[in-house]
Structures are given as structure tokens and as C-alpha cells.
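Lab notes, practical 5.
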Amino acid sequence: MTTASGGDTTAAPPAALAGRGLSYCYPDTSPVFTGLDVRIDSGAVVGVLGPNGGGKTTLLRLLSGSLTPDAGEIYVSGERVRRGRRALAELRRRVQLVFQDPDDQLFSASVTQDVSFGPLNLGLDARAARERVAWALEALEITDLADQPTHLLSYGQRKRVVLAGALAMRPSVLVLDEPTAGLDPEGVESLLATLEGLRAAGTTLVLSTHDVDLAYRWAETVLLLDRGLLAAGPAREVLADPGLLSAARLRPAWAPAAGRALRAAGLLAPGAPDPATPEEAARLLGDRKG
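Output from the prediction step:
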């Protein structure tokens, strides 16, 4: 579970990733947050939601080592990340951040060169690096793009190449900032299928999104942020609370409203889960007509 405060309890196993007492302030602005505690359990899928400027990207960058907190500590598998170049490099190896805009991370001429960069920087020999690259390209279903120039790729293809580069580092936690932004519906479903495969293989996933319905459908737990932590807990509990969503300046989730309407019409049993997608709701209606 992802908790709002208190850190690890003695009964719980070490968190895959945690922040304790995190504070951060950009120059000449008010603090993004102060004394923030978060915990990401191993193998979890965590959605980070909130309005623009609410601190989602800042939190992801702190947890992945892209930013250094003004106060507080980061923990990976229960171990405090120490300050210093070597410790920071190890954090970035174990926790890979994928930015919203793929062009912020693509810098090599070809797909293979770009995906190879991280493994080669780890000191792997050429053969081991090639094996990592081949595995990552296959996992992202872009093996056919291996020799393509990166500047000729579509937006969705560039997103997948950047994700392959992160996977080639074999991280224990994959952190994604708005991974579905800019993708068409087919691209979103394709990416989610890929991420589902990573989840099944045991990768811990943390993703920020503005899409309440996506988080309701796909995340196990969520963090609601707005210059501080408003709530943390199971996605289908937190995102079914209109008051919490209003406080986070987010629109209500579609699924709970659809579930209430279907139950009122006798189309969904009182204890049954809400339909996760419009297609699932339509199937329930179709079954009723049949």
C-alpha cells in the first residue's frame, strides 16, 4: 500500500521506494511541498494525480534523483540514499524516470544507439549491452525500429524508444511522467498493454496522470497532490470520493457514476465492482438486453 505518512512500519517489508519529510522549493517561489511522506511498495502500480503546478513532476524527479530535496530523505528498498555522486548514480540506475516529452531524452542518431547509451554507461561490455538492447526493444515491440534514425520516428514510437532505454537499465522501479500524453486511443491501449507486461514481471510502476478514469481503471493505489499530499490509498476508494477530487482540482471519475446508475437500474449487483471502461458498461447493457 502507498501511505500518506509515517514511513515503514515494523510489520511491513521495506518499501521499494519511499520519501520521508520531503521539502522542495524552486527559486523565487513558494514551496511545492514541505514534510511530505510517501511509500511505494514493491510491485505496486501507483498513480500520482493532481492539477498543473500541484507537484506531480517535482515528486517524481525527487524520487528518481533528478532533483535533490531541500530537506528529507529518499529510501530505496529500505536503504537511505546518501548524498554524493556514486549514491546518486546508483539511485538513477535502480529508479528510472521517463519524461513526458520523449524529445527531452532522445539524443542519439539511431534507436539502437539511444537504447544502448545507459547500459554502456554502466560499464557493460558490448555483448552484454547488445543483449540488454535486444531485450528492451522486444519488450516494447519495436525491434523493427532498431536501425531507424530517431528523428524520423512518430511521437508514439519515440515514447517507446525512450521507455526501452529506461528498461535496458533493468530498474527495480519505473517512474513515468504523463506516459499517455499525446497518444491516440490505440497508442494508449498499446502502451498500457506493454506496462501490464512489466507489472506482471514484477516491475514497480509509478506514473503521473491527469486522467482520473485511467488511474481508476489501471492503478492499484494513488497519491492526490496539490502542493502537498491530499490523500493516498486504494485507487477505487480515493478516486470515488468527489470531495477529494474537488480538493485536488480534478473532475469526478466516470466509473463510480456509471456504477451507481447501473445499480439503480438493476444492471449491476450491489457488491459488484464498477465498470472500468465504457466498453465494459456497454457489455453489461448488452447482456441485459440479451
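Observations recorded by the TA: The first strand starts at residue 17 and ends at 24. The radius of gyration is 20 Å.
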